[in-house]
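#struct-queue
[09:14] JT: dropping the first one here, sequence first, then the structure tokens:
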Amino acid sequence: MMGSRSGVDAARAALPPSHRPKAGHDWDTLATALNDRGVLHVAPARERRSNAPTSTGELFERLVTSPEPRLQQAAVLLLLTHPDAADQARAVVERLAEVQRDRAMRRYVAAAAMQRMARTRIDLQIGRRPEIPPGFIDELGLPPLDTEFGRDTLIELARQEEALYGYDAWGTYRALLDLFLAESRRAGWGKPCASAPTEPA
């Protein structure tokens, strides 16, 4: 298990250079929205709440449809931090199409698999959270999530992504899980920011 600050830095460094942040209004808006929901691993250059997502589901949609890879990946950590938003995330997937749908499905499955792989550590660090329900397993041709506590699911998901998109998906997912476990020790992780807009009912 990784140490707090050195662990965070090491996990961030493990992400490929193409997955590091780029400046821009959309980055700042979505990074601010993530911070407002207690997901702290990305930081805006400047806090922006204009045109911000008004729900966790809308934030998930804007993350998975972003052209920025690190924002796409932040959708995984958003679900790990707020698994109670799983129904909203599945609804988002159902209204997307083609590459965006594929990306959103894979981010959802990755979060569900990681949660199962690290269930004991997550429970110890941030308390028991709702389980992310299975979804899109058959559609993607993946092993069930209860096989090897989600590990087989994530390995096959990563193998498919490497073949489809040509990047080290397994290494990236492992780095994301390490990052989540390291940063979940930070004060304020998973807690709404006091200045954040209220989530609609």
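[09:21] JT: and here's the second one, same format:
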Amino acid sequence: MRTRIPPGDIPRRGARRLVLLVAAGLTLAGCHPGSEEAKRLRAACEAGDAAACNQFATRLQKGQHVLRDEARAGGLYGRACEAGVGEACASLGVMHQRGGGVARDSARAARLFEQGCGRGAMDGCARLGVLHLEGAGVARDLPRAAALFQRACDGGQSLGCAHLGALHASGEGVGRDVARAAELFDRSCGAKEALGCLGLARLHAAGTGVARNDSTAAALFEQACEGGETDGCVHLAAVYEAGRGVTPNFQRAASLYREACEDRNGEACFRLANLHEKGAGVYRDPQQAAALMQDACRLGYAAACPPPGRS
């Protein structure tokens, strides 16, 4: 005869089982090599090892085998930076740039990037170069940005190579040299830097500095998009829309435009609006098209804005 569990006991027994499972999970997590390493780093940091403080701060910031605590991470980065760890200065600079765990402060970020760069943190050099490129927290200075990107690139920092390639492609801050740009983009893309793949894709699409190759450009735009470069996703969508180097696929194009539009890319909103206007890859919807055009204009894409004098 089958034993029946009284209805009132079911929640209690289920809850007890859940508690046991959670406890077992926490026990296993505590035995994980990553947890042991985090404990070792914390102990070394408390004993005065600045490099260990920097590494433990990274784990706190990301929540790797410890509870995520950005504010505490910022304090440890600061301690390590004061002790001369360049990478800690650069990491704290990123936190001040984004305002995560610490106050948002572009000028403070710039000073920290400069400290980090001076102490051999190539990421600090590249990020300080971006600030000089954009004039954020520091004076806009393209030659200075180029020099910082060069230093970062020479030090093996692939983002620095990508940004330096972009300057050589445009001739801003350095002499225009598309062949050099292609070389830098290729090096950066080979190191899985999405911005480098995007730059190289644009050159292949235009046939500038390299042979024009639509298939190669499409593959590189795909890499850039997968690497998190929204502009790469927009270019990839345009490739699918036009069928350049790939089989035309309006649905794929619409999906990519939509994701980029949601990521606040004005051109993507504009192009998605055009697809809704035509009913290509999406349902035809003039009202949705008009709303997307307004979004594109608000995001600064001038082609989507009505001519002066018209609302």
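[09:30] RK: nice, looked through the second one.
[09:31] RK: The chain has a mean pLDDT of 89.
[09:31] JT: good to know. The two ends are 79 Å apart (CA to CA).
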